[in-house]
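<discrete_fold_record>
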Amino acid sequence: MGKLVEPIIISENQITHTISHSKKTYNLIPDLSHTESQQDNVSSGQAQVSSSEEEHIENRTQLFADPRVVTKHGRWLWQAYTSTWCDQKQLMISNIHDHLKHQVNQCNHNISKKKKEEAMEAYLIIIRVMETPHLDNTKPLKHLIYLKDDQLPLYACFTKNRVSIDILKKKTVLLFISDLDLQEDELLVLDRIYQEARLNPSRAESHYEVVWLPVVPNHRTTPWTQENQSKFEALRNIMPWYSVFHPSLLDPAAIKYIKEVWHFNHKPLLVVMDPHGRIVNTNALHMMWIWGSVAFPFTSMREEALWREETWRIELLVDSIEPNIFTWVAEEKYICLYGGEDLEWIRRFTVAARAVASKARIPLEMLYVGKSDQREKVMRNNDIIRVEELSHVLPHPIVIWFFWVRLESMLHSKLQHRKSIDEDPILHEINVMLTYDENDQGWAVICHGSNDWMRRSDGRSVLMSLYKYSEWQDEAQSRGFLPALNEHLEANGRPMAPILRFPTRGDRHMFSSLDDNALMKNILATHAPDGTYFDVKPLLQIIEDITHRANLDKIPINGTQPEIDAIVEIEIDGIVESVIDNDVS
């Protein structure tokens, strides 16, 4: 007996479906019905093949409908059927997948489009709200901070409790806007000014509140990490004012408004909203640094009024940064401010200044204010100056930072009010001070009382004048110390051309450079076509140095222009060669 084959069960419906829907299978089946030997295994007897095509189909249907059919043709037909069925199902599933994928993409597109429309509508609503007059500031604050009423959006850092926006109703509100990379210097100085204002609640300048708005990447697209949360909580917990409970409460439309209308770009802003919800200053930080809370209510009119009352005096320059200044002024002492990072020059200058003050019999106090950068080197100089008792120093890096940022704030404030260096004496002096700060050597300025000033001078020139005190000693005795010193510096010192100081790449100033169109025009005038920054100061210093080295005595007074040009060219070539030979950059 032959080996039995496991039966393959094929239903009549499956056979009929395959025959009627597969032309390929249908065309092959008639060959099977013409071979009688292929029907021997049918248990019900031999099937008779009809002469007509219809009988063939009927017989084949009956033949393979019998569950006992076990032939190689049955196996072939089953394989053909399953293969065709799988292909059809695979095609159908593929079509469904493509259709669903298209529908999902279309839905995502429509959702994205709808979100953009909603975001733009929310942004336009904020613009309309901020431009519309209100009875109080509640509505504008809610649109900026959190519009819904389902939770308390503010956090009172001093009580550690959540509070409502209504607590700010009809108050002047200072919106302190920054990212999470807030410098400790900025925060501590603002904290001190805020705390000082709170010491006397009866004074008008204490009637304002500060709210911190931390601007972070969109939480819907950028994950909020535990590191970000820890940094946020650390900053919030050391602030004495209000804060948003969490950065995610700020709507993207509000952040868009802050960036596009108030020009926030990582540099901190202090936006002032009055009790009626009007924005009266898009950045009052420079006013806060110069005058503190005395600048309340921090409007442009208040800023102009404060400048009208000011003159170039030591109290404006140093203010409360060094409390002894006011005592020295009251005692009519001579006060010398000096800076730079060259320790050897500092030693020579302070020794010479004390020696000359002793000979001239004038009371002299000296204060080292360091530099706006080179913090570590300045602090090392501070330690040495203390140990060697060379002079007074600003005691902390934050105090040194604050001295220089106040000068930069004064520069910004003056330029914002369209002041000219040639016309405004305060702006001129500020500009010179900031120019000296760029010098790696040293500089000094001396005043007597509030308004009697020495001519500002670079370190080398003032040191040489002190060394040559015998040359102007008689003048100092008869006309006064500062007039005589000024005259000697004028006759012998190197002229320092005033150079407007522009921010360089990487500087982190406390004001937005976009606040003032005039300032922006000046800054853009110093940019290369590709938008990069460059500093004109080194070029002017090279020209100045060439002028000093050139021997102008060689130029004939009555010489022709070609003769003069030839002599000047020879002089300049000689200077350049000497610079190259000495490997000076």
About this structure: The domain at 138-302 is CATH 3.40.30.10 (Glutaredoxin). The radius of gyration is 43 Å. Residues 72-131 form the longest helix (60 residues).
